[in-house]
TrEMBL record:
The keyword Zinc-finger does not apply. It comes from Acidisoma silvae. PANTHER family: OXIDOREDUCTASE WITH IRON-SULFUR SUBUNIT, OXIDOREDUCTASE, IRON-SULPHUR BINDING SUBUNIT-RELATED-RELATED. Pfam families: Fer2, Fer2_2. Keywords: 2Fe-2S, Iron, Iron-sulfur, Metal-binding, Oxidoreductase. The lineage of its organism: Bacteria, Pseudomonadati, Pseudomonadota, Alphaproteobacteria, Acetobacterales. This is 2Fe-2S iron-sulfur cluster binding domain-containing protein. Residues 1-75 form the 2Fe-2S ferredoxin-type domain. SUPFAM superfamilies: 2Fe-2S ferredoxin-like, CO dehydrogenase ISP C-domain like. GO terms for molecular function: 2 iron, 2 sulfur cluster binding; metal ion binding; oxidoreductase activity, acting on the aldehyde or oxo group of donors. InterPro entries: 2Fe-2S-bd, 2Fe-2S-bd_dom_sf, 2Fe-2S_ferredoxin-like_sf, 2Fe-2S_ferredoxin-type, 2Fe2S_fd_BS, Aldehyde_Oxdr_Iron-Sulfur, Beta-grasp_dom_sf. It comes from the Bacteria. The keyword Ubl conjugation does not apply.
Amino acid sequence: MPITVNGNEAELPHDPRVSLLDLLREDLHLFGAKKGCNQGACGACTVLVDGQRVLSCLTLAVQCEGRHVMTVEGLAGDNGLHPLQKAFIEHDGFQCGFCTPGQICSALGMAAEFDRGVPSVITEDFDDDGVALTPEEIRERMSGNLCRCGAHNGIVAAIAEVHAIQGDRTDSREAAA
């Protein structure tokens, strides 16, 4: 069974030792996910697998059989860039741009985790409906994605803006009810 990458079916490599990152970059020529540390420490290779953020350098391609992989290249739609991509530009959430694809994919996965009620280390009481995705929460939840240029303030501002526009956790719960 193949995997789906950005809406397109792709064949799995014959070698079960091939990482998802190497499949994306070497076989599918999707260069958004970067090979930074290749040890899971920098987050530059972050992609979404079935909507959850994963480090593609630590994920075997065969683990994604039958699953949906989304890279930064698959986020833009017919109407242009994804709102988070636009916000990164507007808030100078990048300098060299090396970490940006991983930051964006991680931010989307992180916001979904927050909306599902997954606490972070600094979350005091997630049962309280007033929990907000504050800059401190964003920094903690994004701490696995490193930016060597120092664009963290712009990254945090972009994520906060897009999450606020899309509705906070309380609004999401009320809409689902």
